[in-house]
Amino acid sequence: MTGVSIVGAGLSAFGRQPGVSGREMAVQAIRTALADAGLEWSDVQIAFGGSDGSGLADTLVAELGLTGIPFTNVKNGCATGGSALVSAVNAIRSGSAEIALAVGFDKHGRGAFAPLPEEWGLPAGYGEAGLMVTTQFFGIKIARYMREYGITAQTLAKVAEKAYANGTLNPNAWRRTPMSAEEIASADMVNDPLTRYMFCSPGEGGAAIIVASEAVATRLGGRPVSLLSAVTRTRGFGTFEVFAPAIQGIGAPTSVSTTAAAAAFDAAGVRPDEIDVLQLQDTESGAEIMHMAECGFCEHGEQEQLLEKGATLIDGSMPVNTDGGCIANGEPIGASGLRQVHEIVTQLRGEAGDRQVPGSPHLGFTHVYGAPGISACTVLAV
Amino acid sequence: MSPTESAPRLHGSRCDSCGNVAFPVADGCQRCGQQVMQPIELSEHGTVWGFTVQRFAPKSPPYVPPADGFVPFAVGYVELSEGVKVEAVLECADFAELEGHAPVRLTATVPVPRFEVVA
Ligand SMILES: [Zn+2]
């Protein structure tokens, strides 16, 4: 238990926004979060945030107001939002602030990310040979997983079908057109067994979360959500990561998602089977399937049956990515982790409208995973 | 030169403390953090641990397509007897040959490791 509450959550629009900068999206998200909390920018006592490629978060004070607070830049890939949130939580817990902000944003260009071998500590040969392609990693990992655990291509397609269906129910989503599993499965193959509609695309958006001590949360009234835990982890020995020239160790690879999720559940004093609504990193369909098991929500291989029963749908037994996840919202790297927290806050408050999980959910979970082997998880409660 | 001498070999490192094998050559051990690593030659034979097919031409540069143009190729990880799984381009007549932990043999080390299916 952290003794810290989320008192405000805000998003900018997600998806292509010509003429709107990443920084402007961040400001929009922060102002929305402040209004949600019933606070002014001058009430925020400390801030943490960042983007992967759209500027430094501490420069946002030029638009927000020069209140002189400490504002620390975070650059931690897909865990940027998670790391900013952990820092904000720790600032509250340490007593150095009573109201803190975490913000993440990005505005990526069209098409796949184009990494250079040198930036990853690899010889130039990996680029020449055509191995600096992010999607290969996802294809190799899920292809092996499907053979090992009997997951079918139909189930892969179902994950993306659900993402687009949930996107149609989310007014803020980028992809809001439904797509059938058949259409998804028969689209161009990118890296076997993943077709083009099974992947998320680099996108645009900003997300902001305001946390406060329980005393302040009580004084503010509003609709606070308890942050039972917020955890980030880097990889341990023997994981399988994007652009790895080798997987070291004997036997099956380990997963940083497993380590981070277990730590988050342990710190929260909650078991995965108690969670009512969850967000899992869905860089592509296979990732969502594997993360269900890696984060402790089922056994490896159980996903085939669970999806057959519709378990991950909004009205299922373990609703996953109710806002459409990365597949429907796109992947602005800095923003995604806090977009997930925003969605769980919205669900736990019962304010998710057409995509509201029935039965008044009271426990939620978020999980991001990214290169080069990082994961951030939270457990939330009302 | 004899065929043995001309055969390509991959070079890695073995940790003096814990025996972990790294590829490529490493100064420090990812498993235990010790810094005494011995250079070793890795096995030329292994099995396909996992793979996918690159269906579209990667972005050029950095990708250098073959002179006669891009054709889809397989890429994956080859599990060696040392335990380490090495990323490689996988040569085969038909991608289906790579299924079922197919045995493969090293054919080249540059620009990246390359293995072919053993008939
Ligand atoms: Zn060692």
UniProtKB/TrEMBL annotation, chain A:
<dbReference type="Pfam" id="PF22691">
    <property type="entry name" value="Thiolase_C_1"/>
</dbReference>
<dbReference type="Pfam" id="PF00108">
    <property type="entry name" value="Thiolase_N"/>
</dbReference>
<feature type="domain" description="Thiolase N-terminal">
    <location>
        <begin position="4"/>
        <end position="173"/>
    </location>
</feature>
<dbReference type="GO" id="GO:0016747">
    <property type="term" value="F:acyltransferase activity, transferring groups other than amino-acyl groups"/>
</dbReference>
<dbReference type="InterPro" id="IPR002155">
    <property type="entry name" value="Thiolase"/>
</dbReference>
<protein>
    <submittedName>
        <fullName>Thiolase family protein</fullName>
    </submittedName>
</protein>
<dbReference type="InterPro" id="IPR020616">
    <property type="entry name" value="Thiolase_N"/>
</dbReference>
<dbReference type="InterPro" id="IPR016039">
    <property type="entry name" value="Thiolase-like"/>
</dbReference>
<dbReference type="InterPro" id="IPR055140">
    <property type="entry name" value="Thiolase_C_2"/>
</dbReference>
<feature type="domain" description="Thiolase C-terminal">
    <location>
        <begin position="258"/>
        <end position="379"/>
    </location>
</feature>
From TrEMBL, chain B:
<feature type="domain" description="ChsH2 C-terminal OB-fold">
    <location>
        <begin position="41"/>
        <end position="107"/>
    </location>
</feature>
<dbReference type="InterPro" id="IPR012340">
    <property type="entry name" value="NA-bd_OB-fold"/>
</dbReference>
<dbReference type="InterPro" id="IPR002878">
    <property type="entry name" value="ChsH2_C"/>
</dbReference>
<dbReference type="InterPro" id="IPR052513">
    <property type="entry name" value="Thioester_dehydratase-like"/>
</dbReference>
<protein>
    <submittedName>
        <fullName>DNA-binding protein</fullName>
    </submittedName>
</protein>
<dbReference type="Pfam" id="PF01796">
    <property type="entry name" value="OB_ChsH2_C"/>
</dbReference>
<dbReference type="GO" id="GO:0003677">
    <property type="term" value="F:DNA binding"/>
</dbReference>
<keyword id="KW-0238">DNA-binding</keyword>
